[in-house]
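Interim report to the steering committee. The following record documents the input for Protocatechuate 3,4-dioxygenase (282 residues).
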Amino acid sequence: MAKLIGGVGSSHVPAIGNALEQGLQSDPYWKPFFEGYKPVWKWMEDKKPDVAILVYNDHGLNFFLDAMPTFAIGAATEYQNADEGWGLKPLDPFKGNPEFSWYLIDSLVEDEFDITMCQEMLVDHGFTVPMSLMWPKQELRNQVKVIPVCVNVVQYPFPSARRCLKLGEAIGKAVASYEEDLNVVILGTGGLSHQLDGERAGHTNRAFDTEFLDKLKDEPEWLLKYSNYELAEIVGPQGVEMIMWLIMRGALGDNIRELSRNYHIPISNTAAGVILFENEAV
Ligand code: DHB
Ligand code: FE
């Protein structure tokens, strides 16, 4: 049977992709950020997950404002990256696992999540930056097959934080019932607090992010008391991306251990966070 062995929450700022490309990990600006990923790199190298379910948001590369699915899941054999204008060199295609994707989609639709199914899907920095952060070495990255789960946190109305947590629970259930022996990791990406535009551009909220990280393991429902409009006020309109971490958290169930965490302000305009959970139930 497939096993969900752990989960990671991680930010996805495009500048991180440039820093990795230019080997700036030891640069004083970047060091406190990349240091936080060392436990994740070691964990990934030790555990060698076969599949990554990558929960992320597209920023206008594959989906635009004319047609915006709330939840879209890729079911392709590979996912191409393309130039989206942040000065990032497009990365090599990422391998998919269409059989597992279709199983996941079937199971979620059965559980009343109406999923947009994508047999082709371009992936942007929301996807590529977390992949590069989890597996900076391309040969390791190539060993992981990816199932992209794309969430609308771009055009209102967004799904609620509660809906995200429940989607995560349904994903966890689907993985646990998949018959192939695969080790699966789930990545909840985006956030933490940031605002890219308007008079308050550059806004972050350390106190709120810290409380979010503190509550994520044992009390993820804490975030549900805020509407997405309230969250935009508190953590910035782009900071609302953090609701995608609840999908990761919901999938893992309650028998988990926090192995590492890091929080660093600023990376570009963003309060960058990373957290690693291991599932003790499998
Ligand atoms: C930045 C953050 C994002 O989440 C994003 O999608 C693009 C840019 C930033 O801080 O530069
Ligand atoms: Fe973003």
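The pocket of 3,4-dihydroxybenzoic acid (ligand 1) is lined by residues 12-15, 59, 194, 196, 238, 268-270 (CB under 6 Å). The committee is asked to note this result when reviewing the revised timeline.
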